[in-house]
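User: Hello! My lab partner asked me to get a predicted holo structure for this protein. The small molecule is pyridoxal-5'-phosphate, SMILES included with the sequence. Please write out the structure tokens.
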Amino acid sequence: MTVNRALFDEVMVPNYNPSDVIPVRGEGARVWDQQGREFIDFAGGIAVNCLGHCHPALVAALKEQGEKIWHLSNIWTNEPALRLAKKMTDATFADQVYFANSGAEANEAALKLARRWALDNFGAQKSKIIAFNQGFHGRTFFTVTVGGQAAYSDGFGPKPGDIVHCDYNDLEAFKSLIDDNTCAVMMEPLQGEGGIIAPEVDFVKGVRELCDKHNALLIFDEVQTGVGRTGELYAYQGLGVTPDIMSSAKALGGGFPIGAMLTTKEIAKHLKPGTHGSTYGGNPLACAVAEAAFDTINDPAVLAGVKEKEVLFKQLLNDINAKYDVFSGVRGQGLLIGAVVNDKFKGRAREFLVASMEQGLMSLVAGADVVRFTPSLVISEEEIREGMARFEKAVASLV
Ligand SMILES: *Cc1c(COP(=O)(O)O)cnc(C)c1O
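Assistant: Hello! Below are the structure tokens for the protein in complex with pyridoxal-5'-phosphate.
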């Protein structure tokens, strides 16, 4: 069998259009393809591979649990899930955790919980959900409808109702939407897919105050920002604004699929037995790997390292820009970084990704105008410099 990109078009549903390069092996921040070509990985599996590829702690956890027990279902609980939940609640505002398999599922649980909480406490009229334009919360029908890009939710028939959107960082517009019939507000504490857009602290504080005033739950989607990505364990901790419900996924499993919805005991009690569930959620294999990832990242030295790497990353990007003048700015927090293309390259961010691959560098985009970098949180300085040298060649090839 010839296993190549052409086979994708033959046997895979065409909802993706992947690169011609098929990676077969990874180690730390480096990846090799079928032909043995080496790449520096600044994509990190879209903010998932927080410890790079095949980190020894994760491989050890996977092997150890793989020889113990893989799956039980929710008729039985398991030690890795209980340990991980205890560690996550000890490290955050939350008292209790619901495990799922992905970010979308964690958000789906958060939204269903918010609706049920509002119904139980206030009645059916309190169902309005407010979210933000350009926000991204996953691809289930509920989460994609809450997400702020109609292009992703149109064309699938009637949508879940009572969901409205407003501009991120526009507190006045938000004020005019929220009322006593609002059950929840869902937001990313830094918009990732939407273009690496940070919130203004006054905006988030204002949203929190208005949620309190109208008895609405504030849900932070930390699927992309969580588990060290911004240099905080969770981004809310850096903002000084605490949500009522939070979702976590991506980096949580370091590459093994897992999602989590975290909340307080008072809110959690509305998800009574039978209200919600998942066959795989809280699976021992996923939780064992996530526990190892969480233990490794939840370390002040590792989190401080992310902030140091952010400085170097941005400095090198700015140096490249000073030479070639391709970006209007470099933004983001921790190792969630966006380089915004300037007018000359408007709508052409993807060309930087393609040119980078030619030079042996994996990168990402966030929309049409932002080149995005979400490398391993433990990438070495040497690998950052080598990756940036390759990125500079890619930029030079475009100007
Ligand atoms: C990636 C992402 C999701 C979706 O996660 P999946 O695991 O793909 O379902 C949700 N919210 C945010 C903020 C994300 O970045």
